[in-house]
Amino acid sequence: MQHLDIILAMNHVSKSFPGVKALDDVSFHVRRGTVHALMGENGAGKSTLMKCLFGIYSLDEGEILFDGKQVHFHNPEDALKAGISMIHQELQPIPYRNIAENLWVGRYPSKKILGLFSIVDHKQMKQRSEELLKRVHLNLNPNTLLKELSVSQIQSIEIAKAISYNAKVIIMDEPTSSLTQAEVNQLFEIINALKNLGVSIIYISHKMEEILKISDEVTIMRDGKYIGTWLAKELTMEKIIKSMVGRELVNLYPPKTNVPGEVSFEVKDLTSTNPKSFKNVSFSAHKGEIFGIGGLVGAQRTELVEGIFGLRSIKSGEIYLHNKKIEIKQPHSAVKHGLALVTEDRRGNGIFGVLSVRDNVAVASLDDFVQFHFILNNAKLNQLAETNIKKLSIKTPSTKTKIQSLSGGNQQKVIISRWLAVNPDIFILDEPTRGIDVGAKYEIYSIMLDLANQGKTIIMISSEMSELLGISDRIMVMCEGRLSGILDRSEANQEKIMALATAYM
Amino acid sequence: MKKFLNNLKGPNLKNTLVDNAMYLILLSILVLVSIVQPLFLSTNNLTNILMNSSIRILIALGVSGALITRGTDLSAGRIVGVGAVIGGTLLQRPDYAAKFFPGLADMPVLGILLLAVTITALIGLVNGLVISYLHVPPFIATLGMQSILYGLSLIYTKSQPIGGLKDDYTYLATGRILNIPILILIAIAMIGVMWFLLNMTKFGKYIYAIGGNESAAEVAGVNIKWTKIRVYILAGLFYGLAGFLLAAKSGGATANYGIGYELEAIAACTIGGVSTAGGVGKIQGIVSGVLVFEMLKTSLQFLRVPSDLQYVAIGTVIVIAVAIDIRKYLAKK
């Protein structure tokens, strides 16, 4: 390990933004042919460091050595050409173009016709795409449109693209956040194959088990500062958490204090109009209960809750609230009935990026702030935002700050405040802690327990096994759109959930 | 003000300049032209600019709602035309020789105004329904409406110009209250109405929410369809009023009234910082966008720029103004 030479060295890097020192004398060394994990809570400076490496930000101080030479990247293209690629957490496919075009966009292989005009060489493009697809274990026709592919397949395409640039360093930002276990294993195989070819991987993730499994070295950052680098085999989860949060986090989950009561919400035989989606799902959730929904990605869990909430059409089935049948055709009727949905895709359908924290909090509960029939009481809206910022300890400079400048965990808390203001009975949370750091996760679990203690019903979709087991009272598992079983907290364990999650495969 | 002056010192200077680019442009046009042509600053001329702006502001207010919700309204100018020909045909002098409806009795101005804006609001309703329920993109839906309305206006007016408007109708454009032209007072009132709607009502918050992130607004329980329909109805009301006043101001109407006004209104809104990406736009920006536009037009006349060249100048200024203004929204590296 120690004998492998250093391919990438970032030395004493500092970077300030107005009012904050985002990076403070950070050094980061990656060895050739290794997986180097970069860890830290949200806001620790991981992305800023990577953006400095990638030429998106300029350095205030410090230097970058790549393959022994000092480099100055002015934009991502410079970095790509030098041999550094990045696979972003939010993949950016061009859905209506095929695989080959997505791989070669911007640098299409070309040929001359009549010795004059340069045109795209489709034959060569297809051939080279096929070779690349083989290297990432994808058995697909390069003419397939990207919109037909799953998230993990699109990610593999991104990796193929990185390989095609002859990348010596590939940065992967939360690569497994939407992958199933089988897909994660496949990704790890590809990573190991890349390692054997001498490619280095910078692996950014919050998932500690994964990091301990796949990485050779781990660097931890906190508050823009470099904390240290360790060999992965010398580390334990406790040690990582301690270095990341700077204190000992005794428990990952708050103690369970809630006591489930009578049935509050019931779904009977719900079937989607889409034959590939959920079918014949029935369950009932109780007052004061945290009802987990587990399953692999593609099990149609998100589709199910979006169907319940009126965002997707339903062919048949019934929904009961407090033993009364309700009809939900549109999300706004779901809200009127007292349902709330925190969606999985925070940026896609959660936050209003350009709007203030205050407006993001208030948007669902404006009805309560109307006086004289139609005038909004802006002073009370401010108060609402202020109260929630305090109550959920949301870190924001002011209520007027645009939400897009907050960290993921704080954005999530703003969305939760939005629903707290509506005071619904049924909270549906879809991957509520996705992409959120350990400290903020704990706070979100505490909020969930608080709500359960107030007699609310919490329905939580999660792909994190430990989270499902750690916080749920019961766990419903789905597979391929069908319900495969409901486990009680006392009997649930990883093996049982996994077995149910693959029951119909 | 003190804060503003403080900002003028040191590294903040550039940001301050960029953030207030629109007002600086407005000011520099004023200074420049008044040096060359001192008459530019005469009360007469300035009132004239404000009166021309008054009608344009109404149209810009109407289209701004559509723009903030990431829509657009290409039928604005044609709806203005509809408002104009309704006012023109129904409010002629009883003794006018070439009356459009020869037997028509003397109609009350207020009644015809209500009729005109009701009809234009209904046109807005149709736009809104087509956009919300048939899911036709606003660009296409209102492009179609533009053509339909032009045809209908030509049929209705038999392609004839209408003149001889009665005095208490044209008084709306010529009259003054407390020595302030009624036209300007109406514009100020409508600016107030739109400011109120955007900032003090649920409707306004929903407009920004839909423009900011339509999917998120849907999840948050916002009634997207109904909000959008109301946006286009409101726009129809504003255009109808604008058209009605336009006919009064020019003492007549043809089906061609208001042609191209939608593009000027969209340009003025964009100059004023209404983002075509949605969710962003303030009343003061919209108003100053229109003022910049009108002042520019008058300035070019004052500077005796040949009229053909004026088009080139106006187009150039639109692009440059937006290029400067957009810098405040670009992520700072």
Task: Write a short abstract of this structure.
The complex is a heterodimer of chains A (505) and B (333). Chain A is built from 17 helices and 24 strands.
- How many distinct helices of chain B? 15
Residue share in helices of chain B? over 70%
Number of helices of chain A: 17
What is the average per-residue confidence, as pLDDT of chain B, rounded to a whole number?
Answer: 89
Radius of gyration of chain A, whole Å: 24 Å
Give the quaternary arrangement of the chains. heterodimer
Tell me the radius of gyration of chain B.
21 Å
Judged by helices, strands and strand pairing, the structural class of chain B is mainly alpha
Characterize the main sheet of chain B: 2 strands, antiparallel
Main sheet makeup of chain A: 6 strands, mixed
Number of strands of chain A: 24
- Of all protein chain pairs, which has the greatest interface, and how many residues does each chain bring to it? A-B, 34 and 25 residues
Helix content of chain A: 25-40%
What keyword list fits this structure?
heterodimer, A: 505 residues, Rossmann fold, 3 domains, 6-stranded mixed beta sheet, 17 helices, 27% strand, B: 333 residues, mainly alpha, two-stranded antiparallel sheet, 2 strands, 1% strand, globular
Description:
The complex is a heterodimer of chains A (505) and B (333). Chain A has 505 residues and is of the alpha/beta class. Chain A folds into three domains: 6-93 and 149-245, P-loop containing nucleotide triphosphate hydrolases (Rossmann fold); 251-338 and 424-505, 3-Layer(aba) Sandwich (Rossmann fold); 354-414, no CATH class. Helices cover 33% and strands 27% of the residues of chain A. Chain A contains 17 helices and 24 strands. In chain A, the strands form six sheets. Chain A has a six-stranded mixed β-sheet. In chain A, strands 18-21-22-15-23-24 form a six-stranded mixed β-sheet, with helices on both faces. In chain A, strands 2-1-4-5 form a four-stranded antiparallel β-sheet, covered by helices on one side. With 333 residues, chain B is an all-alpha fold. Chain B has a domain at 47-260. Chain B has a two-stranded antiparallel ribbon. Chain B starts with a helix and ends in an 8-residue tail after the last helix. The model of chain B has no long low-confidence stretch (mean pLDDT 89). The A-B interface holds A 56-58, 309, 311, 330-332, 334-336, 341, 343, 348-355, 359, 362-364, 366-367, 370, 374-376, 378, 418, 422 and B 199-203, 205-206, 208-209, 212-213, 215-223, 275, 278-280, 333.
